[in-house]
Amino acid sequence: MKDFQKNTAGMFAWCITHFAIDFTCIALLSSRFADSSAYSVILYAVLYNGFAFAFQFPIGMLADLFGIHGRLSAVGCFAVSLGVFITSPILMCTVIGFGNAMFHVGAAGQILNINKDKAANIGFFVAPGAIGVFLGSRFSRIDMLIWAASVALVFLGLLCVFHQRKNQSLPVSVTAKRIFCMIFLFLTVVLRAYVGNMLKYPFMKPIGPAFIFVLCVFMGKFIGGLCADRFGIFRFNCIVQPICVVLLTLSVIFPVTAFAAILLFNTTMAVCAYTVYRCFACYPGATFGLTTFALYIGTLPEILNIGVIDATAVSVSILGILSTAFLLAGIKCGEEAL
User: Fold this and answer.
1) Candidates 1.20.1090.10, 1.20.1250.20, 3.40.50.720, 3.40.50.1820; correct CATH number of 2-337?
2) Structural contact between residues 78 and 102, judged by C-beta atoms closer than 8 angstroms
3) Can you give the pTM of this predicted structure?
4) For FRET with 192, which of 53, 88, 229, 329 sits at 20 to 30 Å CA-CA?
């Protein structure tokens, strides 16, 4: 925690910028496409998410190769801020999608290099995005807020430039265990994204329960890395994730358990990103981009309405157990490879 406090101002700026990026992107998408046909909405969703998530891996590789994480995140801020001026739906999805991807891998690459032995930082960074997505969809009709967020991104983008920090890690050898770690954790994120989209809770529609639900998502991401640092990554997940699977399974029958379940469910985001990063420390942008690419793969069935399984106690428990097994196997491979 002391190491984190040394970087409090910088981390706070990254967190606020992450919130503003996700708020602006979702608000723009929600406001521009509210009256579009169902086919158009699917097309735009696939296009935007493809650029915003699937492209983070190759963009992260380039950022790592040239050491431009801070500058890349700044360009991402500027690109998203341009979305308010673009009237073509396809062009807007492309620009803000690329902007989102550039910011995420650039910022994540910087943050992963701040404290190389802590998972908490990346958890603090990813958490505000959930609030940004939630509020962006709720306040998409208020043009003034979208414009204000866009202007703020210009100034926040300038801050990103000043936080440029080159990666000075030495190349690491790619061992079989490192590769298995990457594969297992990639599959973990894919499965968890898929399960997250399977779960539908009708009582979450009113803004009150919905906001509490999003706060649970936020807190899960926020404390995931912190608790893993405090108690040990493998030990923490050995205890927490089986409880999470039980609560997720019960939530299908007793929805009130969904709040605790979703909080524990989201503690793995920082853990996955950080563990893969430890195995491939030369490539912080690429490793973070790999996890977001996995998120995109896991959400595609829901976006395209293909191969979506009904959320029953049996299906949720099986997928939950499988993803937990992948998670623990990936963490163990990562620890043994270092």
Assistant:
1) 1.20.1250.20
2) no
3) 0.78
4) 229
